[in-house]
Amino acid sequence: MRGFEIIGTGHHVPGSPVTNDDLSRVMDTNDEWIFKRSGIKQRHYTPEGMGASDLALEASRRAIEAAGIRRHLGTVVSGGDVKRHKPAPDPYLLAGARLGIQRALAVEDSPAGMESARAAGFEALRIAHPARMMECVRERLTGVR
């Protein structure tokens, strides 16, 4: 049986932490009251204009680096790189431009990803089960089952 292994993780929190004691300086509360009710000792606030996808992008970069696989990736395109997301072709068009290619086999796990790849002029292969990805790609490329 084939399995998967977690080879790298990443996280990102913006700015300096704001502690419960920091909050108690500007409002009528204290660390004990907050912690007892929420379990929270500190939190981070995102700067204006930063969204969850920005946090995810930095966390994914760190996970890719921790896993030691960056050298195997020709390019990485994130939601922040394009105005229109899948199912629009923009993510695949940008990846193709960065790689200097116009044709490729895109491996996708969602209908929106399939539509995006095809709209960009790429062949698309839907993978429903990640454990079968290499087998499915090999079959598609060689025609051998």
In brief:
40% of the residues lie in helices and 8% in strands.
Task: Please give a handful of descriptors for the protein shown.
145 residues, mainly alpha
Explain this structure.
This protein is mainly alpha-helical and 145 residues long. The protein has two domains: 16-73, no CATH class; 84-145, 3-Layer(aba) Sandwich (Rossmann fold), CATH 3.40.50.1000. The chain is built from six helices and four strands; from the N terminus they run βααβααβαβα. The protein has helices spanning 20-24, 31-38, 52-67, 90-99, 111-119, 133-142; strands spanning 18-19, 42-43, 105-108, 123-126. Strands 1-2 form a two-stranded antiparallel ribbon. The chain has a two-stranded parallel sheet with strand order 3-4. β3, α5 and β4 (123-126) form a beta-alpha-beta unit. The chain is elongated. The two termini are 18 Å apart. The mean pLDDT is 91.
Task: Outline the secondary-structure elements.
Layout: E1 18-19, H1 20-24, H2 31-38, E2 42-43, H3 52-67, H4 90-99, E3 105-108, H5 111-119, E4 123-126, H6 133-142
Parallel strand pairs: 3-4
Antiparallel strand pairs: 1-2
